[in-house]
Specification:
Component of the biogenesis of lysosome-related organelles complex-1 (BLOC-1). The structure is a single chain. By secondary structure, the protein is mostly helical. It has 2 domains: 47 residues; 55 residues. It is 93% helix and 0% strand. It is built from 2 helices and no strands. The chain is rod-shaped, with a radius of gyration of 40 Å.
Length: 103
């Protein structure tokens, strides 16, 4: 009798485990299909660049950064030049005033 009760418990436990495994497998399958569909949609929307094109874009980026740095250097040079010209203009104004007063 105990053996039968134990067997019933084992059978009930096995049924429960089988049911849970079935539900888990079903849920996993549904999520896998949904993820696969999502990946397909993403793949359609966003085309990946090939290695050559990515390399070319990288080189273009470096070239653009170098050009930008050159422009920044020129701007800095012209700003310094402007400051020097403003100082020279002030000196000339002072000299002009001194010359005008001495006449």
């Amino acid at each position: 009798m105990i053996k039968q009760d134990v067997q019933k418990c084992v059978d009930a436990l096995q049924d429960f485990v089988d049911k849970e495994i079935g539900e888990s497998v079903n849920l996993f399958s549904c999520k896998s299909r949904a993820n696969n569909e999502l990946l397909l949609n993403i793949d359609e929307k966003f085309q990946l660049k090939d290695k050559d094109e990515l390399h070319q874009l990288g080189e273009q980026k470096i070239e653009n950064q170098n050009k930008l740095q050159e422009i920044r250097n020129k701007v800095e040079y012209y700003e310094k030049l402007l400051t020097e010209l403003e100082e020279a203009q002030k000196e000339l104004e002072v000299r002009y005033k001194l010359v005008s007063k001495s006449k």
